Amino acid sequence: MFPIQRRKYRAGIENLLVLLIGGIPIAMPTVLSVTMAIGSHKLSQQGAITKRMTAIEELAGMDVLCSDKTGTLTLNKLSVDKNLVEVFAKGVDKEHVLLLAARASRVENQDAIDACMVGMLADPKEARAGIREVHFLPFNPTDKRTALTYIDAEGNWHRASKGAPEQIITLCNCKEDVKRKVHSVIEKYAERGLRSLAVARQEVPEKSKDSPGGPWQFIGLLPLFDPPRHDSAETIRKALVLGVNVKMITGDQLAIGKETGRRLGMGTNMYPSSALLGQSKDGSLESLPVDELIEKADGFAGVFPEHKYEIVKRLQEKKHIVGMTGDGVNDAPALKKADIGIAVDDATDAARSASDIVLTEPGLSVIISAVLTSRCIFQRMKNYTIYAVSITIRIVLGFMLIALIWKFDFAPFMVLIIAILNDGTIMTISKDRVKPSPLPDSWKLNEIFATGVVLGTYLALVTVVFFWLIHKTDFFTNKFGVESIRNTEFKEMSALYLQVSIVSQALIFVTRSRSWSFVERPGFLLVTAFLLAQLLNLLDAGCNTHRCLCQLGLRKDQGNRVGLGWCYLAVQHCVLLPTRHFQVLHPICAEWKGLGQPPAEQDCFHHQRELRQRGEGSTMGYRTENTPWPSSTGAGLPHTVQRQEQLP
Predict the structure, then answer these.
(1) Cα(181)–Cα(178) distance, integer angstroms
(2) 369 occurs within a structural domain
(3) 64-68 and 245-249 as β-strands: parallel, antiparallel, unpaired?
(4) Which of 520, 426, 385 is nearest to 57 (CA)?
(5) Per the UniProt record, which residue ranges are transmembrane (predicted)?
(6) CATH code assigned at 89
(7) Least buried of 52, 54, 310, 537, by fewest C-beta within 10 Å?
(8) Does position 97 have pLDDT exceeding 90, yes or no?
(9) Which of 92, 69, 103, 398 is closest to 262 using CA atoms?
(10) Range of the domain at 340
(11) Whole-model pTM?
(12) Residues 68, 331, 432, 441: which is the catalytic one?
């Protein structure tokens, strides 16, 4: 256009430099990195250490959380009711069953079950009293049992073993009538939410730790009670409010999973792990596709590590962002496959290595608190991105139109100052006060760019109109009695500089708001940086305040022209508010009505809501009937979680 207008190439190069300086968001990598770094530090203070900063974005968009039961939803502090112990061997009492279970436990470096078994004895030293330990077989996910080979006071060799009932039944090669009786007791325990632990013993006549020994004898069953955490039910309810569907993944029996789900308000729509492979004996499940089954289920029982991997894979194929908790070596593949792998407190090194987030505190409330914090972090990044797009379009389009229509050349140095002050002000957004998204959030680029284009185009046109008013008309002189600055390039440039810089920095208060900007209080640092930038803008427009006002064409006997300029900007801002409000309000309304969710996500959300409307899994009914644990008031949750209830 410059050759057509017969203008000097130097002016064209300077205008091109103006567009390059104003059109490239050079601060974007820094602002986003600083925002995530500060957010990562905040998460670590809440007990969630992020190994990969981009996991913060994925955590903000997580809509399905697959959670372990033991230790996450429950306390993992086991106890045994001696009155419910079942004995299957003649000449053996309940105390001896407990003693054999304690002998098959570690007395040091104990897990929860070992600690419970040894703790049931009057004196923990009784677990090794009168015997000499020869060999201890630790628990492993394949055998699912522990065993101790020992020598008694008379020199006879014995083995004691405890573990999963099915494994012990197979080990003892029990007869059918014994199997039926054992399964009957297990079902009775499971209906009450109790896990079963089987105990067996064996004579070792060969007196060798490697010898197979004699036949194993099934001794008894122990009921293990693992109470839910006091805040689990309330935390799950808050997770559902946040749009996060929590699925219980447990290795326990189906009946135990359903009972625990009922107590915690998760629902009882749970299935055995065999359903994942299409091998369920339930005829109603045969016609249901596995993908749909996994998506609608509240949880799965009898799960092995390979099942966890399959669950994550199927959910990801349905376009869900999946979080998975784990603590063991065998959980590593599922943790690595998940969008957000979460290693719980006391997880193994292998699980921590495969995860994206490592928890330093137990319980589900830490995860939900981290979800809220990550959404705040993500909201700050999205606010800045909309701001950057808007400013880029505003600078490029506005100055291009002014240069082409009126052949007015804006100084590149002034644009550089605007860019520096803008970037310095916007840095403080990393600690701004924001409202987290009420539902899982993600980079909706169409929405971000559409909003940026609308805001940027509007601001560019307002700048063009403002320049036309001061360059071609006496509007301000006639209406407000101020001195005309028409055809005074230096004064026009100063006025245009103030208009562009002030509006550019004030725009962040619009893009950061999810409703009307004047009702959402910004952070102290952001306001301070904005006011400081405005002071620097005024000082930059002239060597001192008096000269600055004169450059703007203000006569000393008239009102403050700068104040008049601010009034013009206030009118512009008021027109801008409905535009931004519509851009934000429309997607939120769509989300709350389910219109903004994928069909599969809507089904899961509506399914969970229907469960609560029918009263299935209601924790209130459970606690009214039985009150073995404190009521879930949410006192243990971070304040941000409790405040989320006020969101629309």
Answers:
(1) 5
(2) no
(3) parallel
(4) 385
(5) 16-38, 384-404, 410-429, 449-470
(6) 3.40.1110.10
(7) 54
(8) yes
(9) 69
(10) 61-74+229-360
(11) 0.74
(12) 68
